[in-house]
């Protein structure tokens, strides 16, 4: 098989040099060119037709992500793209995922992970270095928690004052008769409130309802 043609887009000369040395010392891979800024990406691709681009997401004041997006929109050749970064933040990860990527490496472990990322990109797969993967997983978990909180807030807001009064004392684990005494209504009214609470929250029982509102501190705010 012919060697994988790799181009490096990196404004840090030390990192670019290290990558070049690692790649050129590895059988089956060739560095066909490099660029140190976003403006150099399109000419680099046009001149050398790399199979894979290793691209820093921050190139001085410019964005490697924006440059790759522009390259793809131009209708030019579409090499596989593995992004690299030294600093992770929500916006960088979101923008990279929206543009589309074939790999995302953190520079702290790029020396040990570039080969796996390049090989995966050539196969049409995606590799994330452990730090990047963990960051994205935390983002997803945070987004899920926020979505759940908003859903619970909306559900609680839709309840009547009487229903919310019952909801506030649910964490005490009282049976229905004692719940009724605590909120000064009849047992039948409490049962009706419990049914409405469970329906609004989309749960099957009062325990699940309690867990949801306590988890998000909804009762503490009302």
UniProtKB/TrEMBL annotation:
Modified residues (4-aspartylphosphate): 56
One BP annotation, GO: regulation of DNA-templated transcription
InterPro entries assigned: CheY-like_superfamily (IPR011006), Sig_transdc_resp-reg_C-effctor (IPR016032), Sig_transdc_resp-reg_receiver (IPR001789), Tscrpt_reg_LuxR_C (IPR000792), WalR-like (IPR039420)
Alphabetic keyword roster: DNA-binding, Phosphoprotein
GO terms assigned for molecular function: DNA binding
Ranges of residues in domain Response regulatory: 5-122
PANTHER family to which the protein is assigned, alphabetical: TWO-COMPONENT RESPONSE REGULATOR (PTHR43214)
Protein name: DNA-binding response regulator, NarL/FixJ family, contains REC and HTH domains
Organism, scientific name: Agrococcus jejuensis
Lineage: Bacteria, Bacillati, Actinomycetota, Actinomycetes, Micrococcales
């Amino acid at each position: 098989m012919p060697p994988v043609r790799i181009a490096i887009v990196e404004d840090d000369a030390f990192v670019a040099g290290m990558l070049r040395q690692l790649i050129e010392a590895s059988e089956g891979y060739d560095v066909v060119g490099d660029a140190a800024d976003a403006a150099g990406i399109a000419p680099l691709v046009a001149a050398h037709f790399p199979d894979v681009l290793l691209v820093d997401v921050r190139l001085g004041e410019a964005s490697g992500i924006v440059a790759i997006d522009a390259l793809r929109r131009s209708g030019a050749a579409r090499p596989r793209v593995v992004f690299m970064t030294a600093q992770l933040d929500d916006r960088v990860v979101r923008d990279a995922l929206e543009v589309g990527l074939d790999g995302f490496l953190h520079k702290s472990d790029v020396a040990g992970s570039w080969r796996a990322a390049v090989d995966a990109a050539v196969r049409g797969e995606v590799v994330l270095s452990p730090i990047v993967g963990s960051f994205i997983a935390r983002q997803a978990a945070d987004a899920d928690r926020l979505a759940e909180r908003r859903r619970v807030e909306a559900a609680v807001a839709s309840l009547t004052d009487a229903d919310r009064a019952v909801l506030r004392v649910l964490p005490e684990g009282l049976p229905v008769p004692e719940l009724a005494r605590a909120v000064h209504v009849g047992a039948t009214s409490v049962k009706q409130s419990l049914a409405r609470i469970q329906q609004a929250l989309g749960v099957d029982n009062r325990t699940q309802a309690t867990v949801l509102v306590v988890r998000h501190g909804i009762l503490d705010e009302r």
